[in-house]
User: Fold GNAT family N-acetyltransferase from Cryobacterium sinapicolor.
Amino acid sequence: MPTTITIESPRQPEITELLRLSGEYAQSLYPPESNFLLSVAELEQPGVAVYVARDATDRALGIAALVGGADTGDGSTSTAELKRMFVHPVHRGRGVAGRLLAGIETDAAARGIREIVLETGPESHAALSFYRGAGYREVPLFGQYLGEAFSVCFAKAIPGAVR
Assistant:
């Protein structure tokens, strides 16, 4: 199935529905204080790109956001955080997440992002397996996740990042 990956506004009915489903899923696994989900308003902030995977009929299949990562210009590593990665349950198992992540990584490299970091949870078994299979390595907790019992953090160097 052909899938397109584009950067879009999160304030669309299909996207807000995916965000709602994502939130419900996270809340079914972890206590509220251990969910670090960005709201639609936060996803609309400067420095945040929301990626949408759509099929040939233009139906939204999955979403993810990349936060930060502007090239520093001083030779230091530019890092961005992957947030809100979610594929609608009906469309899972069809490679949507892999195509979405590949599109994000390609765009990140073009933007000069040299590393993508992310947080997920220990009960998110499919996510843990997916990220490991996509070349992400487990790293120590960082930022707002420090000391969080329900967080597992990953990172991946992005090859070919434009300087």
